[in-house]
Amino acid sequence: MQGIWFSELQTPGLAISVKLKKTLHHEKTPYQDLAVVETESYGRMLLLDNIIQTTVGDEFFYHEMIAHVPLNTHPNPRTALVIGGGDGGVIREIIKHPSIEKATLVEIDARVVANAREYLPEISCGLDDARVEIRFEDGIEHVRQMENAYDVIIVDSTDPIGPAVGLFSAEFYRNVYRALKPDGLFVAQTESPLFNGRLIRRIQRDLAEIFPIARLYLGTVPTYPGGLWSFSLGSKEYDPLEVDWKKAPQLVTRYYTPAIHQGAFALPPFVQEILEKRDEEEF
Ligand code: SAM
């Protein structure tokens, strides 16, 4: 292969390779290794610890699915919290909802936001909206301290390693429950059904113990391992399968639609099996 290629080793036996035009920025932040590169096929791309976080070319699949599914499930979301998400993509989608009065971004690494503002304006463009508050702190701690504060909480985290490990724990989900209003709901990105089945199963079981409604839905993210991605939703009152679409806002989107929202909860048999298996069974 000619030229310079970046390869992310996504599993011990699988890599995704992207041809680079140039490296725009590289630094070690207090939390992680951060790079912004220009790719031939997906435009600019953000890497943290050599793991693809987002690209200008395919970010809309992920950001629209993680934001609009919970926001349209809630009939009148006014306050939203994003944990992680320093690139700003989820915030950009949240502020498309006219009912939103305040969107809080809690990102542990200020350098992610600074670099997104400088190199990824298409993704970070919502961060200066008057309804947005940005706090540079640990999302685990933030949620521990909040009570009855948010209509919707979205966890747009890195993979469950380093500072993000605690964002996948049952204790964190219990704190999320407390931080939500009495009819609030929450969504987290929960990795690949192809490669992280055991994690997804454990999360779904934890959520089912904490929330009256716990559901898994799927989306496509071309640059993530396997291309098929999972999102886990816990809700105190509203069921994502019973949205009153006549009352939902008209959104300008590129991937998400009401039909895709509904269809995302239709789980293929192999994913259903993941949820039903016992931990000691292989999948
Ligand atoms: N969509 C991406 C993915 O799934 O690969 C995630 C993108 S976003 C840039 C993830 C962010 O979560 C990173 O900027 C990271 O700094 C942040 N993060 C990790 N752990 C965190 C924590 N405990 N509290 C707040 N932010 C955290």
List the main descriptive attributes of the protein structure presented here.
283 residues, binds S-adenosylmethionine, seven-stranded mixed sheet, 9 helices, Rossmann fold
Offer a quick outline of the entry.
This protein is of the alpha/beta class.
Structure in words:
Belongs to the spermidine/spermine synthase family. Residues 3-236 form the PABS domain. It is a single chain. The protein has 283 residues and is α/β, with parallel strands linked by helices. It folds into two domains: 5-55, Spermidine Synthase, Chain: A, domain 2, CATH 2.30.140; 59-276, Rossmann fold (3-Layer(aba) Sandwich). 28% of the residues lie in helices and 31% in strands. The protein has helices spanning 59-73, 89-94, 110-119, 121-124, 139-145, 170-179, 197-210, 258-263, 269-276, and strands at residues 4-11, 14-28, 33-39, 43-48, 51-55, 79-84, 102-106, 132-135, 150-156, 180-189, 213-220, 228-235. Strand 9 (150-156), helix 6 (170-179) and strand 10 (180-189) form a beta-alpha-beta unit. Helix 5 crosses helix 6, helix 6 crosses helix 7 and helix 7 (197-210) crosses helix 9. It starts with a strand and ends in a 7-residue tail after the last helix. The relative contact order is 0.14. S-adenosylmethionine binds next to strand 5, strand 6 and helix 5.
